[in-house]
Amino acid sequence: MAILSEKFLEVLKHEGVVSIMTWGVEPHLVNTWNSYLVVTEDDRILIPAYGFRKTEKNVKVNNSVKIALGSKEVLGFRDYQGTGFLVEGTARYLESGADYDLMKNKFSFLTRVLEIQVVTAKQML
């Protein structure tokens, strides 16, 4: 059964800010864009990483992550204008392999790929 809903995938079709929270060495929040997230068939989220150095240091100590994202363009609960999600999962960085190559072809600027293995994805609005 898919963890990431059709509503979640619809949100990714519209631009919005994605906030990624890590804590390991120290709490850290970094942002990217909805359009940079790639969802795999097995519900992993791949994110191009150019900077994200503090995020990487945290992931080496504690690979738990939380991601918040949304779009005002997608109807939420009770036809509320806009919806958002809180995603929890585990992270690791990819520097080679098929997923890295796929992402490098889409986003030439990346130096690594942040892979999120989704555990939960809760619609918040």
What are the main properties of this structure?
single chain, alpha+beta, Pnp Oxidase, Chain A, seven-stranded antiparallel beta sheet, 7 strands
Structure notes:
The chain has a 7-stranded antiparallel β-sheet with strand order 2-1-5-6-7-4-3. The chain has one domain: Roll (Pnp Oxidase, Chain A). It has helices at residues 6-12, 53-61, 98-106, and strands spanning 17-22, 28-33, 38-39, 44-49, 64-75, 81-94, 112-123. The protein is globular and about 40 Å long. With 125 residues, the protein is an alpha+beta fold.
Can you give me a brief rundown of this structure?
This protein is of the alpha+beta class. It has helices at 6-12, 53-61, 98-106; strands at residues 17-22, 28-33, 38-39, 44-49, 64-75, 81-94, 112-123.
Whole-number radius of gyration? Answer: 14 Å
| Main sheet summary | 7 strands, antiparallel
Quaternary structure type: single chain
Assign the CATH architecture: Roll
Which CATH top level class fits? Mainly Beta
Q: Which percent bin holds the helix content?
A: 10-25%
